[in-house]
Amino acid sequence: MEKVYDVLILGGGPAGYTAALYASRAGLDTILLEKMSAGGQMTLTGDIDNYPGFDEGVDGFTLGMKMQAGAERFGAKTEYAEVIGVDFSKQNKRVVTTNGEYLSKTVIIATGANPRELGIDGEAELTGNGVHYCAHCDGRFYKDKTVAVVGGGNSAVADALYLSRLVKKVYLIHRRDTLRATKIYHEPLMKCDNVEFVWDSVVKEFITDGKLKGVKVQNLKTQDLSEILCEGVFISIGRKPVTEFLKDEIELDSNRYIVADETTKTNIAGVFAAGDIRTKALRQVVTAASDGAQAAHYAEEYLSKL
Amino acid sequence: MSVLQLTKENFGEAKNSEKTVLLDFYADWCGPCRMVSPLVDEIANENPQYLVCKINVDAEPELAGAFEVMSIPTLVVMKNGQIVNKSTGARPKTQILAMLED
What we know:
The complex is a heterodimer.
Chain A lengths: L3 E7 L3 H12 L4 E5 L12 E2 L9 E2 H13 L4 E4 L2 E5 L5 E5 L2 E10 L3 E3 L7 H4 L4 E2 L2 H4 L7 E5 L3 H11 L4 E5 L12 H6 L3 E4 L2 E8 L3 E8 L5 E5 L2 E4 L3 E3 L29 E3 L11 H20 L2
Parallel strand pairs in A: 1-2, 1-8, 2-5, 8-19, 10-17, 11-12, 11-17, 12-13
Antiparallel strand pairs in A: 3-4, 6-7, 7-8, 9-18, 14-15, 15-16
Helix pairs in contact in A: 1-2, 1-7
Chain B lengths: L3 E2 L5 H5 L4 E7 L4 H16 L3 E7 L4 H6 L7 E6 L2 E7 L4 H9 L1
Parallel strand pairs in B: 1-3, 2-3
Antiparallel strand pairs in B: 2-4, 4-5
């Protein structure tokens, strides 16, 4: 007979490993599937200053490893596999992966999100060589050069601040005329004399001659086109949820996030959505961890009624 | 086989190797690099037919420059001293193996 788990968790970020901690600590037979290594999007940032309990900050990779170790302490298992598809039509849910198939009574989806692309010509070809999505990883290759950051949220502004300390000049290109980022970022950014704001503007084209030379931007108010010369572009315009593998098995919103409230319950009984993958207002490490606990709680409740 | 830590001094061992070579360009402070690093170790241990090497871009800027590394992690597959495959960003072990088998 095929093994049937109590709780199967997809994704090893903060939501996934918190769910794994709570589920295994509650004595449930728990397995977590991760395609690469613990941490998820946390590993793309440098220090995380807003996860409580770390008064000196903590780097995302270390926090991910600690969360994994914390869950494994109570018996949660991790297997490394990428999910290809799911079948939630029966009481025992089936998950198909690169490493075979798994059956479980409940599934907690915590696959998170990836950086959103601009979606313009040449982006894929230039990625890793002119176009970047991780300022913390790749910023140092642009020491004393000129770069552009696209976006106006917390991540974009944190990237611009980080880069301003390394590079000669940073252009911050944002589609509105004010930043969406929280206030704590504004003052340090305004104080940087090597950051220039390009308001009300979107990137229309990459200018290349094999290598990136700059970007063509359009002002949305005047429609004027202009060129910004820079050797690197760091894109930070939000995320896109990892939900392709779900196909039509579960209810998604128009942006492809899984529809679920604070209980993390989806439209399918026994299937839960935790962390960035879920429709929610605030996507943070701490809210992802919170979702993980909620999901494990409601999974346990569901199991007790089977 | 264990992983060979490459410097510009011993780079010839990779360049002149008769085996297919995997190069992992990384830095200690880079989260996605730290995700990939244990996968590269596993590939080295499980596949003696490949020569698996790591290059610290902070310690070896000339090598990183020679391979036009502008993003880390960067994985490069080399045969007979020639680059046959290159990718940037963290990726699952199955994808790294597929790069080597291409």
